[in-house]
Specification:
The structure holds two protein chains of two kinds. In chain A, 43% of the residues lie in helices and 11% in strands. Chain A is an alpha/beta fold. In chain A, strand 8 and strand 9 form a beta hairpin. Chain A starts with a helix and ends with a strand. In chain B, strand 6, helix 6 and strand 7 form a beta-alpha-beta unit. Chain B is α/β, with parallel strands linked by helices. Chain B contains eleven helices and 14 strands. Classes of the chains: A alpha/beta, B alpha/beta. The interface between A and B is large, with 45 and 46 residues.
Chain lengths: 329, 333
């Protein structure tokens, strides 16, 4: 196989990963409407190129921290949709044994150090993981994903300062989707280019976050810098979420036409066009899509068949008081 | 056995654990070259170097967060929070992150981080440098809390905290740093949840910890002259709490007083009183008394500070009321 074809095969895998995230989320929203999934869902639809592009630059042993909108990052890092759906369904086979749900899914073996219910909560954790990676001397990196809203938190500034001071192998990826929950960017910060916030740490990069290959290129450069011991990078990836802040949010705060503008730059549409332009046949993309649908069908079945947790499990996995040999509720 | 200061005992515990386990490192403000505001880590930077003893910017959330993040991927960090009051700046990392991880991962991932906090009142340090915030952490499932009152216990508990799979908060009272105690040449980790009888007595059980323990002991001695025999317990760990130690003592005395420096409202004393009332009711022959800090911020003036925190005289007064069985213990102050 020629190098060109190998690259193309690799790109098709990027498309597969993005499509998997897209459909995982759309199906999750549907399953939630049908009553299979309790609690919050913050869909990643529209932002797939960022997770997939960045994770394409990572290797085994690298770690990432995520956000409340975390399914995409977790899938991009290689998580199993069946155990993710099982967690969303609140079943025993879920990644967190039904104790976390969407906001807290985690798998350290994959190097996925967790979604997070706290805006900005993962940033110091990635900084610490990078510190440990540096101590181990194995040239591994930590990546922290977060949104534009998180860059107003103290944890963001403290972590950038500390990691720049100590040249930690960490890449900060700000997914600027232009809304902090319901509030548009111009009403939550006085700047438009978030990367400027890293001026004083000398490490900013801005990238069009809906082009997966550009994201991957920027991430690769940042990761290479981190591995070489040259310290952290802040990447601002400009993107957009197609759905509301959470499922059920009608997003009426968006000005008319804005969604349509961004839909024209849907990362999946843009990348499918790119692949077709490079000679990938439509039938190949159809096969990829069908394989993803089949995989997600199986994942939903797996979740549905997974046992519910027993009430007593609520008192496990944490220190609890006992009285006459019984855990105290 | 040798005489050892409380702070030096903690330093020995840190050094011995760092020698034993390369994954143990220290992180905090001015703990390296400067040796810490209270000098606890003095000498450790020189001994272990900048890759094991990290001096940080003044960034409490990043400090605690970095420790928790490193613990997620294999380290056993020990954080020093310069003044325990500053832990307010890192509460998210402790309460929402570290405390939840083991539970929310179904026990798959532990966070073996130790957070050492300088606590308590010492000479007009006022409202933002003298608080006793242990009740917040006692209240948070997923955290363990220890409060050593002497050098030997401090050494044993810090070692146990570092080896524990869960996040452990270590409260070190400022006024104890200067104290010296007999410490065995070799100190093993002291299992969390084992309290001790500090003084045996027959008439009333007093539970106290950290610096207030010594006020309780002083009160016990004074009351001996009045013919009241006081048993004094030091729980040493607040979570886990040694219930058996308490029930064994109440079986003998039938009366309970809890004394601590932290404010009365929602304090650890309330929890201990509730444990006794719910689980040991049949052992109690008198109403339970609390002698605690006032429900006020800590004032600056020495006479106000002394007025707010319990001393031996107030504890003695509380014990007399308890022994008489008269609810005069909530005397307006």
């Amino acid at each position: 196989m020629t190098g060109r074809n190998m690259n193309l095969d690799h790109d098709i895998e990027l498309f597969r990963s993005m499509y998997l995230i897209r459909r995982f989320e759309e199906r999750a929203a549907h399953l939630r409407q049908q009553g299979f999934i309790p609690g919050f869902l913050h869909p990643y639809v529209g932002q797939e190129a960022v997770a997939v592009g960045v994770c394409a630059a990572l290797e085994e042993g690298d770690v990432i921290t995520s956000t409340h909108r975390g399914h995409g990052h977790m899938l991009a890092r290689g998580a199993e949709p069946n155990r993710m759906y099982a967690e969303l369904y609140a079943r025993q086979d879920g990644y967190n044994r039904a104790k976390g749900g969407s906001l807290h899914m985690i798998d350290a073996e994959l190097g996925f150090l967790g979604a997070n219910g706290i805006v900005g909560g993962g940033i110091p954790l990635a900084t610490g993981a990078a510190l440990q990676k540096k101590r181990e001397g194995k040239k591994r990196v930590a990546v922290s994903f977060f949104g534009d809203g998180a860059t107003n938190e103290g944890s963001f500034h403290e972590s950038l300062n500390l990691s720049a001071l100590w040249l930690l192998p960490v890449v900060f990826v700000c997914e600027n989707n232009f809304y902090g929950e319901f509030t548009p960017q111009h009403k939550h910060q006085p700047i438009t280019e978030i990367a400027r916030r890293a001026d004083s740490y000398a490490m900013e990069v801005v990238v069009e976050g809906n082009y997966v290959l550009e994201v991957r290129k920027a991430a690769q450069e940042a990761v290479d810098r981190a591995r070489a011991g040259e310290g952290p990078t802040l990447i601002e990836a400009r993107t957009y979420r197609h759905r509301g802040h959470y499922e059920g949010d009608m997003a009426r705060y968006r000005p008319p036409g804005e969604l349509e503008e961004w839909m024209a730059r849907d990362p999946l549409v843009v990348f499918a066009k790119h692949l077709r332009d490079r000679g990938v046949d439509d039938s190949v993309l159809r096969e990829v899509r069908q394989a993803v649908e089949d995989r997600l069908d199986g994942a939903a079945r797996f979740a549905e068949q997974s046992p519910h947790p027993q009430p007593g499990e609520a008192l496990e996995d944490v220190y609890t008081e006992t009285h006459q040999g019984m855990a105290l509720r | 056995m040798r005489k050892l200061r409380y702070g030096a005992a903690i330093a020995e515990a840190l050094a011995e654990e760092m020698e034993r386990d390369p994954e143990v490192f220290l992180i905090g403000e001015d703990i390296g070259e400067a040796g810490g505001v209270f000098g606890v880590t003095r000498g450790l930077f020189k001994k272990f170097g900048p890759d094991r003893v990290f001096d940080t910017p003044i960034s409490e959330e990043a400090i605690v967060g970095a420790a928790v993040g490193a613990a997620l991927v294999g380290a056993r960090p020990v954080v020093e929070v310069m003044f325990g009051d500053f832990v307010t700046l890192a509460m998210d990392m402790l309460v929402n992150q570290a405390a939840k991880t083991s539970y929310m991962t179904g026990g798959r991932i532990g966070v073996p981080v130790t957070v050492r906090m300088v606590t308590g009142t010492a000479g007009s340090t006022a409202g933002q440098h003298s608080q006793s915030l242990e009740a917040w952490f006692v209240h948070t499932p997923g955290l363990k809390v220890v409060a050593p009152s002497n050098a030997a216990d401090a050494k044993g508990l810090v070692k146990a905290a570092i080896r524990d799979p869960d996040p452990v908060m270590v409260f070190e009272h400022k006024l104890l740093y200067g104290r010296s105690d007999q410490v065995p040449d070799q100190v093993d980790p002291l299992p969390l949840g084992e309290g001790r009888v500090v003084r045996e007595g027959e008439d009333v059980t007093v539970v106290s910890y950290l610096h207030t323990l010594y006020a309780a002991l002083e009160a016990a001695e004074r009351l001996e002259e009045e013919g009241i025999s006081v048993e004094v317990l030091d729980p040493r760990s607040l979570v886990p709490f040694d219930r058996r130690l308490l029930s064994d003592s109440l079986r003998k005395t039938g009366r309970l007083l809890v004394a601590h420096e932290a404010p009365r409202r929602g304090g650890v004393g309330a929890e201990i009183a509730a444990i006794a009332a719910e689980e040991m009711w049949d052992l109690l022959g008198a109403p339970i008394t609390r002698v605690c800090g006032a429900n006020t911020p800590m004032p600056y003036a020495p006479e106000l500070e002394g007025f707010v925190i319990p001393d031996a005289a107030r504890i003695a007064e509380g014990i007399r009321a308890t022994v008489k069985g008269s609810p005069g213990r909530l005397t307006p102050v």
